[in-house]
């Protein structure tokens, strides 16, 4: 009864109800507003995504940890034990970078085909289509936090403390990571509708991307000198995920809180010898850049989604 | 009254690709293969729907009605023009399209509700009503992949009509489920109407439009050919549907002659198949007129069964009330309800007076033939 009366009030005030416009061009502000107004759908999709993945498996999320754990173990074995790269606590270095990379990889690889896979839904139900790739990113964020939890356990077991004074940069870096993963996921999901083999191409590209990022090796003591010799060290930093990975490594791997490299530290040469302010400025600029890229990706998606219905 | 749907100059063109490559590899290898053709699915649509109105959209396959509906729901973007919507909209384009078969019915109710744009709290409040309506209490926690197609559709319909939308868009979905569930859906739609909500209904079935809608829009080849009272629109729809049938010239309707009612001596329009029926047509004329009497019989699906010869049955009307009797000596039709249209035409075949669905004859049939007409075939060898 209560329900009925409240809806009755709503119907009477339909004159003031917001007007939604369906047209060929929807401007960016409207797109963002539509996205925000459907947060609830986003959370529903994320939770159903996770539930479907682990339905019927008693160990549930444990399986999602198995693959990263195996990757970590293998890289540690290959680089630390077999090739003896000599990095102290190499597993920790790997883990700090892999947490970031896995979040990016899981988002993009699952979002690339999502519009094609959910064609039945896209052709029949109206909702902002960006929500589909964003739900994949959301699921990757959940795994990210679980892995981050495992990483913290790892630190505790090893008796290794993170660089507490740098910790406040982590949210900025994570926000940049989220926007990067979301932008790539949104654009790729739309392009795949027109070029179905994008999925395979993406697998190859992501592998290449992985080796261009300092996850299993250190930029500082490998290619840095050679690039510096040619004066093109900045090229390496065109890869936006590099800075994010380095920030995570700085926070979780290098426990020293010192602001500069004046005080010698056994592991500091593995990472750039930047003071805290540099980390902050770089991450803050990256976040700003990623925000712009995110808006561009929404615009590209908007241009491409007009023909989804007939291409699917 | 508030306008809830405003369609302004909406056009939609599709590019039809012939042997279009859908991969990057093919595009690189054959950059210029395939030709493209532009298909105009909708051309310059303009109409409005007010709150509380039920509007039917009819048209045969390929007329653009589904495209129009998809544009209104926001699934498709029009090529040009715009659609303005006021209030929440629930669309039943294909029942259960949003279901995740791996999840339970309960989870799907929430997910589908969210997809239609309704909050979790709102779905919480009506969850029991949804389950009640769908009649699948025992299976609500079962994965949807184990549902029968009937259960699937019932659950989807139950969500859409219970989430309390301001506008309900229905596309030929009332043809699903058993007869009892269909009746329940129709009932629910009537409740919606009484509550003053707007409904947009796309259908092939003329009788559905007639029984539910206040107004009908007829589409043909992407153009809107009619937008007006149901009877008038259905009339135009039939003429577009039956292109081979002679089109009646309806420009000469005259106000002086009106057809008031069609009655039978017994008052009943029920007839056994093979039996006859006598109909009396009561007319009022304000002038003396001699023309021809005309009658059409349609199935409820809108199929013309018979149209009498426009030249064959002269009638002379005198000023005042007139009565014309029609004897249908033998009705060989099978079970069903048949609509009778009657009218007066002049000597050139132009319609002077007309009454759509002046009577509905209910035929009962006990034989074993199927279809619409009994031919009494006997087989010999």
Explain how this protein is built.
The complex is a heterodimer of chains A (312) and B (381). Chain A contains 14 helices and one strand, in the order H-E-H-H-H-H-H-H-H-H-H-H-H-H-H. Chain A is globular, with a radius of gyration of 22 Å. Residues 1-12 and 260-264 of chain A have low confidence and may be disordered. With 312 residues, chain A is an all-alpha fold. By secondary structure, chain B is an alpha/beta fold. In chain B, helix 6 (179-194) links the parallel strand 6 (167-171) and strand 7 (198-202). In chain B, helix 3 packs across helix 4 (120-134) and helix 4 (120-134) packs across helix 5. Chain B is globular. Chain B folds into two domains: 3-241, Rossmann fold, CATH 3.40.50; 257-364, Coagulation Factor XIII, Chain A, domain 1. At the A-B interface, helix 1, strand 1, helix 3, helix 7 and helix 14 of A face strand 1, helix 1, helix 2, strand 4 and helix 3 of B. Strand 1 of chain A pairs antiparallel with strand 4 (80-86) of chain B, so a sheet runs across the interface.
Give a concise summary.
The complex is a heterodimer of chains A (312) and B (381). Chain A has 312 residues and is an all-alpha fold.
Number of strands of chain B: 18
Q: What separation lies between the terminal Cα atoms of chain A?
A: 44 Å
User: What is the domain total for the residues of chain B?
Assistant: 2
Total discrete domains of chain A: 1
Report the biggest beta sheet of chain A as strand number plus sense, adding barrel if it closes: none
